[in-house]
Write a structure and sequence with these properties.
2 helices; alpha+beta; Alpha-Beta Plaits
């Protein structure tokens, strides 16, 4: 079985005021385990003082693993839309 590398863009939830992207980044770093190798989490500027979180993660190429990781990320309060920026096999 191969490995998949994913890059995600986590936008702040527009319905929540004062979303703390640093808290979201710390939460995402804590999701690293034997299944999900969270390699890099960065807070980047979006526009007008808003920021987003970019996540680079490596995982096995198994059924449902990407969906499960996206569900885990969306459990954090303040996470809005999750966008896949890139996906590839390694």
């Amino acid at each position: 079985m191969g490995m998949v590398v994913m890059t995600y863009k986590l936008n702040p939830d527009s319905d929540v005021e004062d979303v703390n992207t640093e808290d979201i980044a710390d939460y995402i770093k804590g999701l690293a385990n034997e299944v999900y190798d969270v390699q890099q989490v960065e807070v980047k500027p979006l526009a007008f003082g808003l920021k987003f979180v970019q996540v680079h993660v490596v995982m096995n190429d198994g059924p449902g693993l990407t969906d499960k990781f996206e569900a885990l990320m969306s459990e954090k309060a303040g996470v809005g839309e999750i966008e896949v920026l890139s996906m590839g096999l390694i």
